[in-house]
Amino acid sequence: MRHLLTAAVCAALATPASAFLAQNGLVVRADGSDAFDVAWTGPSGAPDFWCAAGDYAIRGLNLPTATRIFRYDAPRRKGGEGIRFGLDESRAQPTGLLRLQGGRGLTAAYARRFCERSR
Asked: What is the pLDDT of residues 35-79, one digit of tens each?
C-alpha cells in the first residue's frame, strides 16, 4: 500500500510546475521532484507555512489526512525565503515549531489545523 501511495504522490508531483493557492493565501509549487515549496508572500511564520503544506497535501495531492509531511529546509531561514516540504522522512529537518514531544514532521491534518488561526 505504501508503494502505491508513493507512486501516486510522485506522479502528482511530476506534473508541470503549477501553483496551488492554499486556503491561507500562500502559494505552493511542486517542481517535479518528491518535494514542494511554499513561497514567502509577506510576514509569515512557521505555522502559516505548515498550514499551506497540509492544505496542499490534502486538497492539492488528495492524500489521506494521516499522511506525514516533513520540512526539508532547516528552520533558520532568511527573510523572504519560502520553505521546502516533502514526504520523505529521511530528509526531514526540525519542524520550526515548538513541540513538547519532539519528533519530525506532522500529519497533513495537524498541519492544516494551523489554517484556523489565520482566519
From this structure: 999 998 887 888 999 999 999 999 999 999 999 999 998 877 777
How many angstroms separate the CA atoms of 25 and 39, rounded? 10
How many independent structural domains does the chain possess? 1
Q: Which domain holds residue 61?
A: 2-118
Q: Give 84's pLDDT tier (boundaries 50, 70, 90).
A: very high
pLDDT digits (tens, 9 = 90+) for 7-23: 444 444 444 457 999 99
